[in-house]
Each structure stands twice: as structure tokens, then as C-alpha cells.
């Protein structure tokens, strides 16, 4: 009578779990050859490697761009928050402070302090140059209403100059980012 040894099911060399869709992405053989694709992707992200740690096979890594691009932040929620703050807070703050009785200088100072404080509160969660430019344009739009009502145009011309400089800087940085992203594999 002959005994048949049970065939061992392949296990992932990273998570050590059997089954699933295994791949053999490198030159390893035997028990180290099989790996789940998701496990390998996660391992490469964590280890910051581009090659197999066993056989040193150089992986060809294709980075997919995200399906959606948000202009102000990396998440839809933060992108929407920046839009909301610009439309519902930055535009009306200048006319509101003027209509409650502040002087032109106090109105301008209050609006710009709000702009700075708002920017500092989200600085690590947004693309800062795009956000600062957008919010400054919103403030300037509200300031245009005040200038039109008061006939005092000095501050608004200065703000439009700042907006133009911010817009040029934003365009230049986005162009450089696009050029750099095309060069990377």
C-alpha cells in the first residue's frame, strides 16, 4: 500500500494565509514564490522598497493616478469645506462688517485677519496656495461691494494686485507640478 502525501496549499509569504488569488511576481521559487497582490502592494508601500527582499528582483511599479482630482485638498470633504468657506464666509464678511458700522480701514483689517486665521486653521490639510488664492479672491469680491458703496477704492485696487500675484504664483506652481508628475514613472 502506498501512502500519498497531502499536497500543501500555497500560502502568501507576507500574510501567511493560504488561498486566494496568488501571484508569483519575482524569481523566487518554492514557498516564497507565492504572494497575494494586495499584500505585496501594501508591503512595498510600508517597506519603501522597489525590489524583492529575497531574490532582489526589481519590480515594475505602475502608479495609477486617482480617479478624481480635488483642486483644494486631497479629500472631497476638505475641498467642499474650502469652497463653502469662500462662498459663505469670505465673500459676505466684508460687506457685513461695513454695514454694521465699521470704518473702511476696520472692515479691511477684519476681513484680512479672518483670511489669515482661516488659512492657518487648514494649512496642513489643503493645498495652501490654491486655497489662499481662492479665499483672497472671495474677500476681494466682497470688498468690491464695499468699495462700490463707499466710493473708496484704494484698498480694493491693492487687493486685486495681491490676487493677481497669487494667481500667477498658483499657475506657476501647478505648471511645475504637472511637469514633475510627467517625469516620474
In words, what does this structure look like?
It is a single chain. This protein starts with 21 loop residues before the first strand and ends with a helix. The chain has 185 residues and is mainly α. The chain has five helices and two strands. The longest helix is centred in the C-terminal third of the chain and has 30 residues, at 154-183. Helices cover 58% and strands 2% of the residues. The chain has two domains: 1-64, Zinc/RING finger domain, C3HC4 (zinc finger) (Herpes Virus-1); 76-179, no CATH class.
Layout: helices, strands, pairs:
Blueprint: E1 22-23, E2 35-36, H1 37-47, H2 76-99, H3 104-122, H4 128-150, H5 154-183
Antiparallel strand pairs: 1-2
Spell out the helices and strands N to C: EEHHHHH
Please state the CA-atom Rg, rounded to the nearest Å: 28 Å
The average pLDDT score comes to 85
Question: Widest sheet: strand order?
Answer: 1-2
> How is the biggest beta sheet arranged?
2 strands, antiparallel
Q: What is the number of domains?
A: 2
Helix content: 55-70%
| Number of DSSP helical runs | 5
How many beta strands in the DSSP annotation? Answer: 2
Provide a short characterization of the protein structure.
Helices cover 58% and strands 2% of the residues. The protein contains five helices and two strands, in the order E-E-H-H-H-H-H. It has helices spanning 37-47, 76-99, 104-122, 128-150, 154-183, and strands at 22-23, 35-36.
Keywords:
2 domains; 185 residues; disordered C terminus; mainly alpha; 2 strands
Amino acid at each position: 500500500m502506498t501512502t500519498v502525501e497531502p499536497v500543501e496549499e500555497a500560502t502568501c509569504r507576507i500574510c501567511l494565509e493560504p488561498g486566494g488569488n496568488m501571484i508569483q511576481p519575482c524569481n523566487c521559487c518554492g514557498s516564497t514564490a507565492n504572494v497575494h497582490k494586495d499584500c505585496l502592494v501594501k508591503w512595498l508601500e510600508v517597506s519603501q522598497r522597489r525590489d524583492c527582499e529575497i531574490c532582489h528582483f526589481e519590480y515594475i511599479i505602475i502608479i495609477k493616478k486617482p480617479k478624481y482630482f480635488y483642486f483644494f485638498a486631497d479629500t472631497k470633504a476638505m475641498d467642499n469645506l474650502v469652497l463653502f468657506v469662500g462662498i459663505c464666509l469670505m465673500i459676505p464678511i466684508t460687506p457685513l462688517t461695513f454695514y454694521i458700522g465699521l470704518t473702511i480701514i476696520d472692515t479691511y483689517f477684519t476681513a484680512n485677519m479672518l483670511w489669515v486665521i482661516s488659512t492657518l486653521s487648514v494649512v496642513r490639510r489643503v493645498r495652501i496656495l490654491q486655497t489662499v488664492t481662492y479665499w483672497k479672491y472671495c474677500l476681494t469680491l466682497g470688498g468690491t461691494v464695499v468699495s462700490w458703496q463707499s466710493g473708496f477704492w484704494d484698498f480694493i485696487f491693492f487687493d486685486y494686485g495681491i490676487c493677481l500675484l497669487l494667481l500667477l504664483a498658483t499657475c506657476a506652481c501647478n505648471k511645475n507640478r504637472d511637469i514633475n508628475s510627467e517625469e516620474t514613472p
